[in-house]
Amino acid sequence: MNKLFDNTQVAFSSKSDAELKRAYFLFNMIGSQSLVKIGTAVTNFALKAHLPVEGLIRTTVFDHFCGGVTEVDCLKVVDKLYIKGVSSVLDYSVEGKEEEAQFDAALAMTLKTIEFAKEREAIPFAVFKPTGFGRIDLYEKVGAKANLSKAEQDEWDRVITRFDIACNAAFENDVMLLIDGEESWMQDAADAIVTDMMRKYNKQKAIVFNTLQMYRWDRLAYLKQLHDQAKTEGFHIGMKLVRGAYMEKENARALERGLKSPICVSKEATDINYDAAVLYMVEHLDQMAIFAGTHNEESSYKLMQLLDEKGIAKDDKRIFFGQLLGMSDNISFNLAANHYNVAKYLPFGPVRDVMPYLIRRAQENTSVAGQTSRELTLIKKEKARRKL
Q1: Neighbouring-strand partners of residue 232
Q2: How far is CA 55 from CA 61, 72, 225, 359, 363, in A?
Q3: Domain 4-387 classified CATH 2.60.120.380?
Q4: Distance CA 111, CA 329 (A)
Q5: How many CA atoms lie within 13 A of 91 on its CB side?
Q6: Distance (Å, rounded) from C-alpha 224 to C-alpha 358?
Q7: Residue 367 pLDDT more than 60?
Q8: Span of 201-210, 222-231, 346-355 with lowest mean pLDDT
Q9: What is the Cα–Cα distance from 225 to 376, expressed in whole angstroms?
Q10: What is the pLDDT of residues 28-47, one digit of tens each?
Q11: Helix (H, G, I), strand (E, B) or coil at 272
């Protein structure tokens, strides 16, 4: 297949020279583990000490990886992307909350983004994190089938209600809703709720999407089991497929507790697992819809080839490619230029509250072999092309 992801002119066509220089600076920084550790420590200290650093963060790492502070603030980025055929997913990326009022606020924001998406063709999806709607410890306890106190059961019922309110709003407004995957020890409880939501709202097509993190060796079997259930009960499966974002934390926890790690034994095994899930879903597209969330060029080429071999239209609404804002523009913009459905995740929220997301993003880029160097190579190539 033609290696279209090498086309930097298309990849960076929406970036000014100044934005390209900023990207080069940021990926150079992210490429160094020691700099990421130092930068993380200094940033956390500055924010805790209430030093005036938010302006600096906003004009550098925040503006590169985030859509804005509010959903309205994101519109400039949404429009800029959509001119090039790239859709957006507004992701309220405030993490680590523990209180009921904060969970209700996250639901309110999710409903707001669903309304926002309903009115804009450029925003086909809304999204939320399960731990935005409830405590991770509670998910873990429910997943382990532990006995809940009356107060905990009431709390869990409120979590389920928040899911149902969000999924019902997505259904009523015909907006696809992505529900992110998180740590393995809370995922069983989240999976059970999302399956109930699919059963309820995905009768005609996929509205509610769960997430499979394919660095987990058990996820393909889970997908096949879910498919059997969907065939029996008559609902469609929506699934975002990703490799995963919590590998170091997952391995450390398993080691500490003397458990078998839920993570595949190697990067190669993860790649095989991911591609197998994509193939399985494409082969059962009559009952499934895929959001292929990947920064892996080879996996993207394989999905493109599958669509070609099976005579599936590039713009079939049951298949989206997805990448994060500020990363893998060579995949996103070249796919869009070739008429595939593609969407960028646009994290947004107050600078201070979004910092945990940004720190995780930097750490992930540092730990994924080749990702940062590939970004830098492409940026250098485009800078040289523009010079000429």
Answers
A1: none
A2: 11, 19, 49, 17, 22
A3: no
A4: 29
A5: 24
A6: 34
A7: no
A8: 346-355
A9: 41
A10: 888 777 777 777 787 877 77
A11: helix
